[in-house]
Amino acid sequence: KAKNEGRNQWAFFQRDMDEKIVQRREMEQELREGIRTGQLRMVYQPRYDTRCACITAVEALVRWQHPQHGLLMPDQFIPLAEETGLINALSDWVLYTACSETQRYLPGLAVSVNLSAGEFQDNGLYNRIKDVLEKTGLKSSRLEIEVTENVTLQDPVKTQKTMLQLKALGVKFLIDDFGTGFASLSYLRTFPFDGIKLDKSFIFPIDDSVSARQIVENMIGLGKAYALNVTAEGVETQIQLEQLTLLQCDSLQGYFIGMPVPIESLRDLNTCRI
Ligand code: C2E
Ligand code: MG
Ligand code: MG
Ligand code: MG
């Protein structure tokens, strides 16, 4: 009897796995179609500059308006896109949309786009970005690329080369989710980053924890020591805004500053032109 039960469980497990594989294949097909047929949506979250007390940049964040499942967040489809190679097509759409909408609707503002670490292994990345800048007419100095520090782990020589080519064009690089990755800090010296974005997990506790505040103060100091622009992510309260301004954090982003919204909702931003 015990043997039979074991066999049944295995059969269930097997069926479950088969279903998951089928679901994944379906979802891959749907994402491929979705990219092709215009189901991706772009929202923009403002980034506030504490020195000029104004919005100087936006971060482009992708969404997928799925015909059955509704509006999907990046965590629900970016991993699939990375595993299936669809990330290139997705990033092309993201880069083109972010650059053309910024050029058209947000005069003078910079836009930052998230790329996956693995994309720096693609030899074509430099030309793809150069093409987008030419097609959209966005000045290269207004494009920033956000990537996690894990980008430094795979083929560092190749990654560095691509980054330097893009830097020569005028594009900037920000380390996203700073403090959560697996690289040693030595990459701050060897890779040409322009800024760091402190992960929201460090910002969240500063309201009521002195030690959390000291950690953020030290991270800001570290960034400044490397001449990097420092952004705090996940600013949700007035107190966080005041404290981070006091600590001379260069830029702030988060729900308290502004939610990610479609470009139309950003047109009346009170901005200083940079
Ligand atoms: P991220 O680049 O670190 O983006 C910040 C995330 O935090 C966004 O989530 C944003 O909506 C959210 N956020 C902003 N302010 C606050 C706040 O005050 N509190 C809290 N709790 N959250 C806040 P979202 O849009 O779900 O994006 C999640 C991640 O997906 C992004 O993290 C980024 O790594 C990735 N992602 C987004 N768009 C793209 C894309 O076009 N390409 C790639 N490769 N990845 C993307
Ligand atoms: Mg980001
Ligand atoms: Mg982040
Ligand atoms: Mg992230």
Query: Structural class from helices and strands?
Result: alpha/beta
Tally of separate helices: 9
What proportion of the residues is helical, as a percent range?
Answer: 40-55%
Attached small molecules = ligand C2E, magnesium ion
Radius of gyration, in angstroms, nearest whole number:
21 Å
Shape: globular
Protein name: EAL domain-containing protein
Domain EAL: 24-274
Organism: Erwinia sorbitola
Task: Write the SSE topology.
Elements: H1 2-36, E1 40-49, E2 54-66, E3 70-72, H2 78-84, H3 87-105, E4 110-114, H4 125-136, E5 143-148, H5 156-169, E6 172-178, H6 187-190, E7 195-198, H7 200-203, H8 210-225, E8 229-232, H9 238-246, E9 251-252
Parallel strand pairs: 2-4, 4-5, 5-6, 6-7, 7-8, 8-9
Antiparallel strand pairs: 1-2, 1-9, 2-3
Bound molecules: ligand C2E and magnesium ion (3 copies).
